[in-house]
Design goal:
The protein is mainly alpha-helical. The chain contains 3 helices and 2 strands. Strands 1-2 form a two-stranded antiparallel sheet. The radius of gyration is 39 Å and the shape is elongated.
């Protein structure tokens, strides 16, 4: 390696890494995700859990099964299946809230934007095709004129040659 071609310094490499778009996008996603978590948790705690609580209980942590002969308090072998069920329900509810309140509307919005973009490109393509067709017609007409001129010159040359004989 020559003296002029030095490797970038560690600091330069770090600055380049930080300025990449995907690092900045990831940082923004983490911040937005943290803020969105509060919204989702509020919807789950304020709306969904009371509706589930109307059917049964809001706290499933108390449900368990005992595997040993004596289960009192913390003694014995207890399977805390209520906690697992509560976590699974919380996950499903959170996933449903995220899907129906964020993913689905955003997907529909992006699909409308894409359809609008395709329609716009379609109009431009029609305009370009018609311009292309006109240019082809002009080219064909010019070629026909040139070929007609050559034929006329050739015919005139034959006629002149016949007259001399």
């Amino acid at each position: 390696m020559s003296v002029n071609q030095q490797e970038p310094s560690v600091w330069q490499g770090f600055k380049t890494f930080l300025m990449r778009g995907n690092v900045v996008d990831l940082a923004v996603a983490v911040v937005i995700g943290a803020a969105f978590t509060n919204i989702v948790n509020s919807v789950v705690k304020g709306l969904i859990n009371p509706l589930v609580g109307a059917i049964g209980t809001q706290n499933l942590d108390t449900y368990s099964s005992c595997l040993s002969s004596t289960c009192r308090g913390d003694k014995g072998i207890q399977l805390m299946w209520g906690s697992v069920l509560g976590a699974a329900l919380s996950f499903l509810i959170t996933a449903a809230v995220v899907y129906f309140l964020m993913v689905l509307p955003m997907s529909k919005y992006l699909a409308r934007l894409e359809a609008h973009r395709r329609a716009k490109e379609g109009r431009q393509e029609v305009i370009e095709v018609t311009e292309l067709e006109v240019l082809k017609e002009i080219r064909d007409a010019l070629l026909a004129q040139r070929d007609a001129g050559r034929d006329a010159q050739r015919d005139a040359g034959r006629d002149a040659g016949r007259r001399e004989l």
